[in-house]
């Protein structure tokens, strides 16, 4: 298990700000945090070097890229052994429709976030990725109606409803 990194209030505030907008200029971050620009840049370099910040990403509107339907799929495996779980994890990584995946506890073994453009695409995906996998016992699909919060730190909606 990785060792926790010691974060002070300045680090935590910086992380909150870059999670909401990782393109915010250092001078604006410095004003918001109450540090110099060089101190902010030094802290951000350290947070990246220590893998606290593991990626700088963009949140893309799936409706504008042809993947307007979001499904959350609960998958139950035939066997919950380490090898079966690892094999399934490797297999699902090959499907671009899966935009996030978690190994979970409870009655189900995996939770998949699947983004597709239509129900026909989803049907094809389930047949290829889940129906043909002998290790899959069953799966249940939850269809997302609307995205309310994408960033759990910023706690702001993607759109106004």
From TrEMBL:
Biological process terms in GO annotation: response to amino acid
Name used for this protein in its record: Lrp/AsnC family transcriptional regulator
GO cellular component, one term: cytosol
GO molecular function terms noted in the UniProt entry: sequence-specific DNA binding
InterPro entries hit by this protein: AsnC-type_HTH_dom, Dimeric_a/b-barrel, Tscrpt_reg_AsnC-like, Tscrpt_reg_AsnC/Lrp_C, WH-like_DNA-bd_sf, WH_DNA-bd_sf
Keywords, alphabetical: DNA-binding, Transcription, Transcription regulation
PROSITE patterns: HTH_ASNC_2 (PS50956)
Domain HTH asnC-type: 7-68
